[in-house]
Design a protein that fits this description.
Number of strands: 32
Radius of gyration: 27 Å
Oligomer: single chain
Helix content: 10-25%
Structural class: alpha+beta
Largest sheet: 7 strands, mixed
Strand content: 25-35%
Distance between the termini: 39 Å
Number of helices: 17
Shape: globular
């Protein structure tokens, strides 16, 4: 790889190696590779990277306060039941117990929800899912709190749960709002259109858990004014504050949420259901109260990816060009609505994938069941349909006898094409270029048939595999996601930049969830003001809101606000100099802490120009508005789109059904590389999460009961499961409406990787592979060994 390719921010495409190469390790760039020392385009490390890798990062579970009490929550053992009575006397009489709260003790709104307010703080009459909160206890020791919660006597009338989303339509209402959350009928083109070739498929996507790193935890501290402060790893503190205040019957300014100890998040990091009981107990006892949820409680309490049932029919002509796509998409929302409406909109809008489809007729539903609640997990909606439409493309290729990559190339979307929602793709859409890049990348070598290479077999050295039973498969996936919120969401963020004594401070309520916002904010200020030392202030709700940390929002909206504020400070800094030398500020530039004029007459340092002054500015960023989908599924619902192509290479033991992912080649549409090292990390993490969804991650239920709610029963991919991930191409075609021209990086690999793995397993086995995660029996080939 040339050094120019690694650093040219304005080039149309860039190839980056793996992470070790970005740091000059094995296989890396030449030693004389020059990268910017600071600012955009540099590989500035994350400020908390060392603490997280060394284990010294202060998680929310590490919080402490004088006079601390401990909380525990009683949860329902049933997925559906009527509550006949709740007797808390046994808990209240235990020594060390300070308070017990139930639905009767909620002073304000009894329901909460970030998207739809339909979920009770504590169940009062009905239990709608396994693990629903019934009561909470505060005690002077965590063991006492847990024992007291177990001592609460609840009499239930167990009801038959509705766990099949297809039966939810005819079932008795599980909620006062009914079982149907949303129905989207998308109509685009001619319903009578038909193709010469037709393929059909039924696909099922399992329940993936966000599995947040570190315990979900928090600390509530009562305030003298009757309010409360909540210290927790929230990813959307202002929304959490508002719904917490509503449940407490308080004005929002009497509730403060302080974000602390966020180790990373791929969905809603802290469900408000963990935070509200904390605050209630703190207000009741007048003492600080801490809750650190066990992994089992996390599985029971927070939301998961929507299990989805998809029926597809694809029409194509004899050359393999798509004519029409028909689909039915059913999302299992679980007991409450949460983000189901938004997830369904993404699923329906992207049901045809990044392909040109003249006619599309999609029916989408999201329904309530007595299964665990579903909500926001990275790539929601888009991941499920990607697995299905890519399965259909493989079927078309097989039926037509066309190479799967070639079939996809004949149908790829590009800028100026129209989505089935009627929205024109105005952003860069280099889908064909991405697919060609991964298709043409050299395939990995076959493993040698030797004892020392047993670990390369599917299942590893103890997997009982035989080399003669292993088949290699190559598969493809093309995915797309939307950026920012959709369907009329008002996206806005506010940031303040302050500079004094050569140190800059950024104040913005954008939560760092691992997406790299704090690093990006530092780079923006370095680039704009030439100040090397930049600090990003801790986040709390005393700051103006910045919105949730989803859909690449903070790179675009919050990064855009930081850039505007920094440019305003830059103008304040340069105007006196420009006036003194009789020139405009546009003729002055800042680089490496120095201010120079275009003609070289002026040359000074930023510190000298500051002359002890303090400069600051506050700015907002608000992208152009979108609109809701109408009754026919039409509308300009999305601000922008991002695309990805993945080629998966897998080895499958066709006798045992064990699968080893050998390599994932990735080409991605990134708009602009802002931090090469962090970008590579985000893509690799997304690919690995996608592999988990493809092969191992499935939160299984039996009649609504979560089976094995722990990390033994729920198998996350480890370092041993991660394959070689080759980032073969990054297309840097800047989106002109986005700040810096950049696009979000981590969601679209998650969306695309499972489809590519499934495609590769189909290639290896000849089996249809229509369920994720892929079960061993689905990978056992019926053909004899050859």
């Amino acid at each position: 790889m040339s050094s120019d390719a690694a650093t040219a921010a304005n080039a149309t495409s860039t190839s980056l190696p793996r992470i070790d190469a970005l740091s000059g390790g094995p296989g890396g760039p030449d030693q004389d590779l020059e990268q910017p020392r600071m600012g955009l385009g540099s590989s500035l490390p994350a400020a908390d990277a060392r603490a997280k890798t060394e284990g010294t990062f202060p998680y929310a579970a590490d919080l402490w306060a004088e006079g601390l009490l401990w909380a525990a929550v009683l949860r329902s053992p049933h997925p559906h039941a009527r509550i006949l009575s709740i007797d808390t006397s046994g808990a209240e009489e235990m020594p060390g117990v300070r308070a017990v709260v139930t639905h009767e003790d909620v002073p304000g709104e009894s329901n909460y929800g970030r998207h739809v307010v339909d979920r009770p703080v504590f169940a009062s009459d009905l239990v709608r899912h396994h693990g629903e909160a019934i009561a909470a206890v505060a005690a002077d020791h965590p063991d006492t709190a847990r024992l007291a919660a177990a001592a609460i006597a609840v009499r239930y009338e167990v009801l038959e749960p509705v766990t099949d989303p297809e039966k939810a339509f005819a079932a008795e209402p599980l909620h006062p709002d009914g079982n149907l959350i949303r129905h989207i009928p998308l109509r685009y083109g001619d319903a009578e259109a038909a193709g010469e070739i037709v393929v059909e498929g039924l696909y099922r996507i399992g329940r993936q858990d966000p599995a947040p790193i570190g315990a979900e935890a928090g600390l509530a501290v009562p305030r003298p004014d009757g309010g409360v402060e909540i210290y927790t790893a929230s990813t959307d503190p202002h929304t959490d504050r508002d719904l917490i205040a509503a449940c407490f019957g308080l004005e929002p300014d009497r509730v403060k949420v302080v974000v602390t100890g966020v180790p990373g998040a791929t969905g809603d990091r802290e469900d408000p259901g963990f935070q509200i009981p904390l605050g209630l107990l703190a207000l009741r006892t007048g003492c600080p109260v801490k809750l650190a949820a066990s992994r089992e409680e996390s599985f029971l309490g927070h939301t998961h990816r929507h299990p989805t049932l998809l029926r597809y029919r694809h029409h194509a002509d004899a050359e393999g060009r798509l004519v029409k796509v028909e689909a039915q998409i059913l999302l299992d929302a679980g007991a409450y609505a949460d983000a189901s409406s938004e997830s369904l909109a993404a699923a329906v809008a992207f049901a045809c994938g990044p392909y040109v489809v003249p006619h599309a007729f999609i029916e989408g539903w999201a329904v309530r069941t007595n299964n665990p609640p579903s909500g926001h997990v990275r790539g929601e909606g888009a991941m499920q349909v990607c697995a299905a439409y890519e399965g259909q493309m493989d079927k078309l290729a097989a039926k037509l006898g066309i190479d799967p990559a070639e079939l996809r190339l004949r149908n790829t979307l590009s800028t100026g094409d129209i989505l089935p929602t009627g929205q024109t793709v105005t952003c860069p859409a280099p889908v064909a270029e991405l697919l060609q890049a991964v298709r043409d990348f050299p395939l990995p070598a076959l493993p040698k048939d030797a004892p020392e290479d047993d670990w390369l077999l599917p299942g590893g050295p103890e997997g009982a595999g035989e080399p003669g039973a292993v088949r290699r498969g190559v598969g493809y996936g093309l995915g797309m996601v939307h950026m920012l919120g959709a369907e009329g969401t008002d996206e806005v963020s506010t940031a303040t930049v302050r500079v004094h004594d050569g140190v800059a401070t950024v104040i913005c309520a954008a939560v760092e969830t691992g997406q790299g916002f704090t690093t990006l904010a530092r780079q923006i200020v370095q680039e704009t003001l030439g100040v090397e030392e930049v600090h990003v202030a801790a986040v709390d709700t005393d700051q103006p809101p910045a919105g949730p940390a989803t859909h690449g929002r903070h790179t675009w909206v919050s990064g855009g606000a930081v850039e505007r504020a920094a440019k305003m400070v830059r103008t304040q800094l340069l105007q006196p100099l420009a006036h003194k030398f009789g020139m405009s500020t546009e003729l002055l530039q800042i680089a490496d802490g120095k201010i120079t004029s275009y003609d070289g007459v002026l040359s000074t340092t930023v510190m000298e120009a500051m002359d002890g002054k303090e400069l600051w500015a506050t700015a907002q960023c608000r992208p152009h508005p979108t609109e809701p989908l109408d009754e026919a599924g039409q509308g300009d619902a999305f601000v922008g789109l991002a695309f990805c192509a993945v080629r998966a290479v897998v080895d499958v033991d066709i006798e045992l059904g064990s699968i080893r992912v050998v390599e994932m080649a990735v080409a991605q549409d990134v708009g602009r590389v802002l931090n090469p090292a962090q970008l590579a990390i985000r893509i690799e993490a997304g690919i690995t999460q996608g592999i988990g969804a493809a092969l191992t991650e499935n939160l299984r239920t039996a009649k609504g009961l979560i089976r094995h709610p722990d990390l033994t029963g729920y198998a996350l991919p480890t370092a041993l499961d991660a394959p070689d991930i080759r980032i073969v191409k990054l297309v840097e075609e800047r989106d002109v409406v986005a700040p810096f021209g950049a696009k979000p990086a981590s969601a679209v690999p998650v969306v695309t990787a499972p489809a590519a793995v499934a495609s590769a397993v189909r290639s290896a086995t000849g089996r249809p592979v229509n369920r994720l995660p892929i079960r061993p029996q689905a990978a056992v080939a019926t053909a004899p060994k050859g």
